[in-house]
Every structure is written in C-alpha cells, then in structure tokens.
Inverse folding.
C-alpha cells in the first residue's frame, strides 16, 4: 500500500510511518466491519483520535497552513506534469491512424 501523492511532502521514514498508521487503521476498520459494528462519522472521528493518541501522534486542531487556493494550484501543477508524462508514452488511435495515412505507400511497378 503506498501513498505516492504525498512523497513531495514526506521523506522516506515519514512516508513509511504514514503507511504503517494507515494500514493499522484499515485493519481496525475491517475488524469493525467483520463484527458488523455500526459506526457513524462521529464514531470514526473519535476512534481515529484515540488511535492517533495511542500511537503518540498529534491531532491537527486547525485547518493547517496551506490555503485552499494554493492546494488547488499545487494539485493542478502536479496533474499537468503527470498528464505530460502519460501522453508522451501513450499513442492514441487517432495518432496511429494519422501515421498510417502519412506513411509512404509502396506501389508495385509494372512487371513486379
């Protein structure tokens, strides 16, 4: 399980710690579901806070330092870089058809 979208913000040990926390919490959530324990959003928030405290983690009590607009700009910039990389490696059906049309046609000469 990986959260590569965070790798611009986290170093390798931080990313590994995040992966471990998420995996532990998902195991807990799976156990709740298997036992058919009804959970509401307020219950999940309460459990998450307890889970973070148990793991000696701080709980964010505010909206953080990044504005909504800056987050959108960062996301769009990263998405555009991703798109450029993908489009360089994928050739669309349209591109393939154009190449076939542009390819020189070899005609047989009389007598061949």
């Amino acid at each position: 399980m990986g959260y590569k979208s965070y790798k611009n913000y986290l170093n390798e040990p931080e990313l590994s710690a995040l992966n471990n926390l998420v995996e532990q919490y998902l195991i807990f959530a799976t156990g709740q579901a298997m036992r058919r324990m009804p959970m509401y959003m307020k219950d999940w928030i309460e459990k998450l806070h307890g889970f973070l405290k148990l793991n000696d983690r701080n709980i964010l009590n505010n909206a953080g330092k990044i504005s909504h607009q800056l987050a959108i700009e960062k996301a769009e910039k990263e998405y555009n870089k991703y798109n450029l990389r993908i489009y360089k490696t994928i050739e669309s059906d349209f591109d393939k058809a154009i190449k076939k049309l542009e390819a020189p046609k070899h005609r047989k000469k009389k007598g061949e």
